[in-house]
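Reopening this ticket.

The earlier resolution said the output was attached, but the attachment link was broken on my side. Pasting everything inline this time so it's all in one place.
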Amino acid sequence: MLLSACSDTKEAGQSKRLPISLKPTLVNNVNQFNTYVQQRHLDVGRQTKTMAAQINMFANEPSHENLLRAQAAWQTAHESFLKLKPALLVDKDQLIRRIDAWPIQPGFLDSLPDYPTTGIVNDISIEISATELIHQHGITSDDEVALGYHSLEYLLFARKLSDYIENSVPADSNPALSTRSLENVGAAAKNVNRRTLMLSTIVIQLATDIDRFIIQSESELDDQSSSAPILAGLLKSLLKNMRQAFRESLLLNERDVSHGGYSDTSRSALLQELNTLRSLTLGEVNLSPLFTILDATNAKSFEITINQAIALAAKEAPSETEQINLDLTLSALLHQLEDFELALRLRLND
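Inline output:
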């Protein structure tokens, strides 16, 4: 049935171009999109600064209260970036991989319970600097993540507070410790400074990469000479992000590989991405007239499907059936976006 729908869309797209009467609507859509992007730029910039300040406060004064503030600021900043992410209309995969790479290998960053000497933190031959972390990031595998939101997520949510406090287990406070245990305590204390420096270095580089992301998304809008290519780029970007959202849904219950698993924010991140999709198609940017021209039946179904997906994603403790329904709904949403993107591309190439 999906193949048939794609075929029908293709035939319709080949038969005629977009009507001239739609042009004012498309221009208005681009103005709406520009306004959306400008607002998100301001929000992401503000939240990034807040996150950096809270993380640096924790790095300088590690305490339970400062850790909670840093964690809360991380979640707000990450979700604000998810609202902006689809606004990058030209593929910049390398930059996205620096900002929002996941899943990660925790042992690539730091020690593991059974491997206390693993990770960059414990490898004194690796300098903790932005240049070196950029070099290490994805050095042999995509999940060798040394930068971005999710390396910060692991360091803030999966590591213990004591990992950031020197002499948190003083050797002379427990005479029963063996010589080997004392050596391990000493090694852990020596790594506190490297771990803290890594935290601060990652957040500085993340702020730099986000600034670059914002500049590039602004310049791409300025480079477009007409409204239709901008909206075609938006649909392509939304489709790409929807494919990732579908993958995220399938991995919601897999903590080590889900998007935001260490912070237990996988579901809220997915919900944010779906709300962003609705904002960029039926809300702050209203593509309904364009969708109706491309495929009136699909346009009606799309609004129903996106609302169903958001309702299912918003459930905090979904049943197995509800989770399956979410996956199926996201699959349908993905196919609907594919049909819109194909239909618009065909009409623009006619």
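Reporter confirms the inline version is readable. Residues 1-15, 169-175, 177-182 have pLDDT under 50 and may be disordered. The chain has 13 helices and no strands.
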